[in-house]
Amino acid sequence: MIMFSFTSFSRCQRLVNKPILTLLRNFHKEPIPVAWEKPEIGWTKLNFDGSCKGRAGKGSIGGIFRNHKAEFLLGYAESIGRTTSTIAELAALRRGLELVLENGWNDVWLEGDAKTLVDIIVEKRRVRCAEVQRHVSDIISIIPEFDNCMISHIFREGNRAAHKLAQLGHQSQKPQIWRRIPPHQLLQIMHEDAEGKIFFRRR
Question: Which of 28, 115, 120, 147 has its CA 20 to 30 A from that of 12?
């Protein structure tokens, strides 16, 4: 028989009480279905992502443009040197917006998996970091140039194509752009997105 003193039992109870309560709270929560969605006819959808690796903060960006048939229009990937994950996310969106302007797309849907940054842009918040604010201000100044523009958050499971391109950016010696024909690393992801594959994300 195992015996605990009251003091030992109380200490153990404090250690396990919080995890047990968390487990019980999460037990009844339904997983969140996540799937990439096609844009409306005439719209162009950009999914973007930034990546930052290692202690040195080696950053890269990536993004993919698709139409209402989920057909590949353009993709980009680039290493951007030492940075933070926040700056990488913003740089990925900013580069995407530059490509929107270059290609003359006027009805655009922007989607990324960094919810806080999406909220900052949508609500036009000001932030303390000067470098972050500079990127945010640049992005907000570009958006009115489009006829129609919406921006949304998607969980990582629905942003896999952009994430893959951001990972390719780490391997790139120079900026990469693909037009009409995607890199082979995207083919399976794009097929699953086009088919509406659903991932279930735990809350």
Answer: 28
Helix (H) or strand (E) holding 44: strand 44-53
Handedness of CA 8, 14, 17, 19 (dihedral sign): negative
Alpha carbon 6 to its chain centroid, in Å, reads 49
- DSSP state letter for 40: P
3-state secondary structure of 149: strand
Instruction: Take residue 116 and report the two structure tokens written for it.
Output: 């806080």
Using CA atoms, how far apart are residues 94 and 117, in angstroms rounded to an integer? 12
- Please state, in angstroms and as integers, the Cα–Cα distance from residue 196 to each residue in 70, 119, 130, 146, 156, following that order: 10, 25, 39, 28, 15
In this structure, how many other beta carbons lie within 10 angstroms of the beta carbon of residue 176? 17
Q: Is the pTM of this model over 0.70?
A: yes
* Residue type for position 24: L
